[in-house]
Design brief:
The chain contains 17 helices and 28 strands. It has 578 residues and is an alpha/beta fold. It folds into 3 domains: 138 residues, Alpha-Beta Complex (Protein-Tyrosine Phosphatase, Chain A); 270 residues, FAD/NAD(P)-binding domain, CATH 3.50.50; 149 residues, FAD/NAD(P)-binding domain (3-Layer(bba) Sandwich), CATH 3.50.50.60. It is globular, with a radius of gyration of 25 Å. It comes from Marinobacterium weihaiense.
Length: 578
């Protein structure tokens, strides 16, 4: 637990889990306040589980959800009233602790000096100086209506998201202009190498190999706002943080990743990590996948894939092939029925790679169930319900029993993106697929999984997108149109067995884009060299090259002709705005 004491009565914390409640009890806390709404992000634990743990340990539980970036006067009054009637010490938590600290600061405004409040929050690790005007208004008039600062903090480049995309583009920018004023908005204290989770679930990696503290990844000289972005104000060139602070920018890069929508499948969240239900799409569950692979010796193993778009479209298959290879080697495969239940009508979206994959489907005796969409899970009874659609578009619901169920969840853009002016009709960031510039705002660029560009959502795509965005952002800062283009490159190393990979590399329209000559790596065939690349080289390249802006095999293509008129106009509009 990461506990920050504001007063002897109240401490705040980033998101806690049910397992943390016992520790809170041993530390003497008498009550827990949850200020985070349910289903705010993909990794968020179920608050009901935390409530049940609090009740088991004799702690009072209070659920007072506050929407990120929209702390109202009513929220403040309710928080103040709650603190007044509780017996402490009290632990309040939200995503990062910022909302809880802000609620306390505003609630104490009528009683404490403004400087004393800000000093206390700063000592706890929360800089709330942007709330000074609102705290002062509450202290003087008892009204906390926030006022926009006349001079919000402003940066040349503001980046939303400190994951693979945000860090990679930061590295590429700093390689080109080391003194550039860059700030990153990222609430998480950890950074994950997500491509490694397939190998964790396959028993090859330890999950600790895929995790580093965010402060170790964040480049020197970059301002890190450890808070969540809540809203965009593109006309004012501002981003609103979860505590209401507004940050200004000259150029904005949006790279928040996507949301894994576990709750879109009723019953799934409640049974994850037990009853034989797992997913390599979560850091904490990938080891359970390997545990299940080792313990499942007979029965039915189901592997699911939802409708597109999803992060790494080959990942559901990778988990299945590694599991089957282990069962084959251990002699268990003849006693297992393995099914791949995919919402799609094909095994893989690029036909050139299907023949090699089908060889393994046949070797492992996998039943391919096309147009099967997982719609519910009954973990206690080990039943999975699917909507099955035939060639004529007719559908029916079918229940399948299972002994092991590996789920790839439905995926969508984060709500603060889909509800923003930056989104297209489907909720994704509306980008030009070549320049990665926003279609309506010339001072905004995007990359990574939250964009609407029709490429595979993989770390390899980010590796190629980051230099393009970096080049075009620097052009925009000079009032010039974009000149670098992205060809849709994505890569999916399909782990068909332990020691061999089909290295799928392709761009827009399914065009094959191999990185290596065919005599070295024939991407459409299984390769031991590709496995070596995946297991040994790619993690090193990720941490030591990609995140640091070293663009090995990723140099951007630079336009030598005049860009499209709409791109030029967007750049000119931005230049006038400056």
């Amino acid at each position: 637990m990461d506990i920050h004491q504001l007063t002897p009565f109240l401490s705040v914390s980033p998101q806690i889990t049910a397992a943390d409640v016992g520790l809170a009890a041993t530390l003497g806390f008498k009550a827990i306040i949850c200020n985070r709404p349910d289903n705010e992000s993909q990794e968020q634990p179920d608050s009901n589980a935390i409530r049940e743990a609090a009740e088991r340990h004799g702690l009072e539980w209070h659920y007072l959800p506050v929407v990120s970036g929209k702390i109202s006067d009513a929220d403040v009054a309710e928080f103040r009233a709650l603190l007044n009637r509780l017996h402490g010490p009290v632990l309040a938590f939200c995503r990062t602790g910022t909302r809880c600290s802000t609620l306390w600061a505003l609630a104490e405004a009528p009683r404490l000096d403004v400087d004393a409040i800000l000093k206390a929050t700063a000592a706890a690790g929360y800089d709330l100086s942007a709330q000074r005007d609102r705290i002062a208004a509450l202290a003087e008039h008892g009204e906390g209506t926030p006022r926009m600062s006349a001079a919000p903090r402003r940066h040349d480049v503001l980046i939303v998201g400190g994951g693979a995309a945000g860090q990679a583009v930061t590295g590429s920018l700093l390689q080109r202009q080391p003194d550039l004023d860059i700030a990153i908005i990222e609430p998480s204290a950890e950074h994950y190498y997500q491509p490694g989770w397939t190998l964790v679930g396959g028993g090859v990696f330890d999950r600790k190999q895929t995790l580093r503290p965010m402060h170790d990844v964040m480049p020197e000289g970059v301002k890190w706002y450890q808070a969540a972005a809540a809203a965009f104000r593109p006309e004012q060139q501002q981003v609103v943080l979860e505590d209401g602070e507004r940050l200004g920018y000259r150029t904005l890069i949006v790279a928040p990743g996507l949301t894994l929508d576990w709750d879109a499948i009723p019953g799934l969240r409640e049974t994850l990590g037990r009853n034989g239900v797992t997913s390599n799409y979560r850091f904490d569950l990938a080891p359970y996948t390997w545990e299940l692979i080792n313990s499942t010796r007979k029965g039915r193993a189901l592997f699911t894939q939802p409708p597109m778009p999803i992060k790494c479209a080959g990942a559901p298959q990778k988990a299945m092939y590694l599991a089957c290879d282990h069962w084959r080697r251990s002699g268990a495969l003849p006693d297992l029925q393995v099914e791949f239940c995919t919402a799609g009508a094909a095994l893989f979206g690029v036909a050139d790679y299907v023949p090699a994959l089908m060889e393994y489907v046949d070797r492992y005796r996998i039943n391919l169930a096309y147009q099967h969409t997982l719609i519910a899970v009954d973990g206690d009874n080990r039943l999975a319900r699917f909507r099955v659609t035939d060639a004529q578009g007719n559908s029916e619901e079918v229940d399948k029993s299972f002994d092991m169920l590996h789920v790839c969840p439905p995926q969508r853009a984060p709500r603060f993106i889909s509800d923003s002016p930056l989104a297209d009709a489907a909720g994704w960031i509306d980008l030009n697929p070549e320049t990665l510039q926003h279609r309506r705002y010339g001072d905004i660029f995007g990359l990574g999984d939250a964009g609407n560009t029709p490429n595979a959502k993989t770390a390899a795509a980010v590796r190629k997108q980051a230099p393009v965005v970096a080049e075009n952002v620097l052009q925009a800062l000079k009032g010039q149109p974009p000149r670098a283009v992205y060809d849709g490159y994505g890569s999916c190393p399909l782990t068909v067995e332990r020691g061999k990979i089909v290295l799928a590399e392709f761009g827009y329209g399914g065009k094959l884009l191999p990185s290596f000559p065919i005599w070295l790596v024939e991407g459409t065939r299984p390769s031991r060299l590709s496995w070596l690349l995946k297991e040994k080289m790619l993690p090193w390249i990720y941490w030591n090259a990609m995140l640091k802006g070293r663009e090995w095999l990723a140099k951007p293509e630079i336009l030598t002709h005049r860009p499209a008129d709409h791109e030029a106009n967007a750049a000119c509009d931005f230049a006038e705005k400056k």
